Amino acid sequence: MAYEVTATRKRPQAFEKLVGQEFVVSTIENAIESGRIAHAYLFSGPRGVGKTSSARLLAKALNCEHGPTAHPCGECVSCREITQGYSTDVIEIDGASNTSVNDIRVIKDEVLFPPQSSRYKIYIIDEVHMLSTSAFNALLKTIEEPPEYIIFIFATTELQKVPATIRSRCQQFHFQLIPLETIKGCLREAAAEMGIQADDDALFWIAREGNGSMRDAYTLFDQVAAFSQDHITLDKIKNKLGLVGSDQIARIVEAAITGNSASALREFSSILAKGISVEQCIRDLTSFFRAVLFIRQGITDEDLLNMRTEEIPDSVLSMLSPAQAEAALRSLLQLYREIRYSISPRFEAELFISRLSSLPFLTSPEELVKKLEEMKKDVAAGKVTVVRERSLSLVQPTVQVTATQEVRKEATTEPVKSPTPEPVKAVAPEPVTNAPLETVPTPEMKTPVEAVPEPVKKAKRIPVLEDIKKLAASGDIDHVFGLQNALNNVNGVTLAEDGTLELRTNSLLPAKTIRSNSKLIRELLERETGFDGAINSFAAEKQKERVNPVLEKLATSFRGTVISEQEDL
After folding, report:
1. Is this model's pTM higher than 0.90 or not?
2. Quick one: three-class SS letters along 38-78?
3. C-alpha–C-alpha distance, residues 524 and 545, integer Å
């Protein structure tokens, strides 16, 4: 007999064998038993969870010679033909290869003819979302009011691509992912039927890699069984498929967070030396920190963790908080996106591993706020005493200096000996009287007061042009834009009758700048000259020298200019 793959050999032939879809099974069985059979069904869900198998089971239940029944016999002619796939009244159509409107027209013509030997004529269209828009529109009227002997069963993995007009005309059933433990039990049963011994951790790994798909798990099981001979172990799977063991990932993380980055990097290098890709290592690290995060949050269900709890060392769990595990997981997800554009994905991964040493010291803002609130409560309750430091100031003795005597204070280096305390004698307390208490005078401690010299005032005088140029050259006005150039443009200084210092410039712009900053100029001039009067500025153009018009005309005719003019020749 020809070899048959496990996914085909283990395809369920009764609703009782369909695992992981209890809601779908119970609803269809109740509908068949009560006679509420719809004319169109829509099965949606992930790949490999039993959509096509359920469609065939429904067709078998409706066309069984003992039915319609929720438990077809599987022995009659109709059941055997549907099981083997050559029934003339159960037509399976691949929606991916029959997408045009012409293919739908063929179906519309065929539905006019009743079934040949069965009770119903059933059309199973797989991957129905691949039909074109025109094909969907052509199918609307047919599935809305088909003949009583016609039943449509649609299956799709992308429900959002099916038009709402089609979904509204069908009874919809959404298939769920199959739990990990259920897949693991089916794999153990398949291994027992084939006479293969399989370790529990190996079956757990295969079921985990199936990601909720029974067909994917069966396919991987066939591949592992091919090179494992009669005994499937996790070590054989790692060696043959080139996988990163969870123990290696745990060693990398444990060494990194304990500060031994060199050991973690060497372990990572040994993994890459076996031919394992950097992307696979990052994916395994991501799964590891995801499991750490879930366990630290109190989740220990292996179906949700997608990893066995004993694969994670207790030292790692004790050193990492949920916030720290979340930060590492977020960094790994970002790293996987960044390595696509990196010059060296290995360098990026090594940089992440070296940074893991600082992970135990990472603190989230929420934890800091919580810690501060706890400290405030402890202080308010008196559990914590706050001690403030007191600065000790040394009191220097007063030194008097006269004209004929000079007092010098020399520092002594000898240690000061504290007096030996005398033994305390018990003294009987004196009777308390109502006499007034005597005030004990306390010696006054004089602290030296340093003499602050008074600022030397400059003699008041009128600023001259040299003072203005000196002020322009100083750095006191560098912060005022244009003021230095304006002061350099001053060509005369005069004192008006009202005491205002007038600065004469060659143009209007420097004069305006000086007037805008007259307060600053007055303060600076007062510091240097003692002048505290007002400051004003005006523009006065320089008078041109008188030139003899005859000489000027003569110079112009010879294309020259008059340099000087002498009156007496």
Report:
1. no
2. CCEEEEECCCCCCHHHHHHHHHHHHHCCCCCCCCCCCCCHH
3. 36
Q: What is the DSSP string of 76-119?
A: SHHHHHHHHT--TTEEEEETTT--SHHHHHHHHHHTTSPPSSSS
d(CA 106, CA 98): 11
How far is CA 16 from each of CA 24, 35, 374, rounded to the nearest angstrom? Answer: 11, 20, 57
Tokens of 59: 């067709």
Q: Which residues contact 510 (CB under 8 A, 6 or more apart)?
A: 485, 486, 487, 489, 490, 537, 539
Q: Which of 311, 315, 331, 332 has its CA nearest to residue 254?
A: 315
β 90-94/121-126 pair status? parallel
Tell me which residue of 546, 553, 540, 541 sits closest to 567, measured CA to CA: 546
Q: Which amino acid is at 94?
A: D
Structural tokens at position 569: 């020749």
Asked whether the predicted pLDDT for residue 10 surpasses 70, the reply is: yes
Residue 499: exposure state from Cβ atoms within 10 A (0-12, 13-18, ≥19): exposed
User: And the tokens for 45?
Assistant: 């869900």
pLDDT of residue 385: 61
